[in-house]
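Instructor's aside before we start: the two examples that follow are unrelated to each other. I chose them only because their records fit on one page, so don't look for a connection. First example below.
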Amino acid sequence: MGMHYRGRAPSDPVREHVWSCSYHRPVNARGELLGLFEESLDITDRYRAQERLSLLVRAGKRIGASLDVRRTAAELADVAVPQLADEVLVDLPPAVIEGRQPPTGSAPGHGLLRMHGRTPEEFRTSPVSYPPSSPQAQSLATSRPLVDASRPGTRDGTGSAASHRSTSFSTSSASTSSTIPAREPG
């Protein structure tokens, strides 16, 4: 009989591991049970790689099939939550949500509308701005992703400006926020 077991090892109590376990019942020549034999193999890295690959396949099939920004944001949330993130936040200039070209020259992180929710059904829009020193404004100004684990207990979003879209994945248990600017093609 084979099965997977998830848990923490005494030698690594911080990280969750996945083991593939096989159980065998050795018997003697008369068919009497001698005991139970367990064989375990730590497959954590392979298991996580398979989970990431499955997530990428689902994301490729579901995200961005529509030009509707709201639908794309909801698709992103639907794929990412709860496997990758607790919540997805997408911040855009109002012009992008309205289907227009965003203004050029605006300061990163100012005058944005946040699309957020845990599920596509919960997605709503609210105004948001970020100070210039925030990870979101820095990410937009440099067009580079940032991971911010320095502020425990905070749940940050992302900002966007000009021809950028940003997405933030925030995990409350790890108190980490990733800000990822995405440039529209063209």
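Example two begins here.
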Amino acid sequence: MVLTGNAVVGVEAGKRKLDVALLVHGKLKTKALAVPPAHGDDLIEWVRKQKVAPETVHFCVIEGDPKATSVALALFDAGLHVSFVPAGDIRAFADAERLPARADRPGADVVARYCAARQPEAWAAPSRQSRTIDAIREQLAALEGYRATEMRWAEEFRARGADSQAEGALAHVAWLDESIAKFRKSLAELVELSSDAGHDTVA
């Protein structure tokens, strides 16, 4: 029988594992999953194995590193009910309820109990298109940083009289210029499409 009651899952991402805790009908089950999980599939599959329908679960992910964001996005994209909760809120809840919690990582079980007691609002994640735009902006910024570094090397090589090395650096700059131009074009096209669709694309 698949349970369809008010179930919650607390999620805490660590360096080497994803700690999760399922709280349903007052009973707590915990599990450590490998990091990175397969786009949240491992977590969803584990919930199903507990005879709980993921569609009926309120997932609470504690904010932290990019792994936590990836898990929250995966759950959101799967159409599930997910909240992205500040760590400070979890610690304050643990203190108020006198629950044992580490200062650095409160624990998935505490996150689950917080989720059940406080019922935080559902997270409105950025659209896929907005996320793509942000990723391109980050890549573009990285390329521009590489270009600035290569230009500094070219100038330094020339000052030393190392013309062949300077030419090599400038050749790399030329390649970076082509890549930057392509990224800027792609970014401009995506921003225009996103603006037409009514998505927020403010830098």
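The two ends are 49 Å apart (CA to CA).
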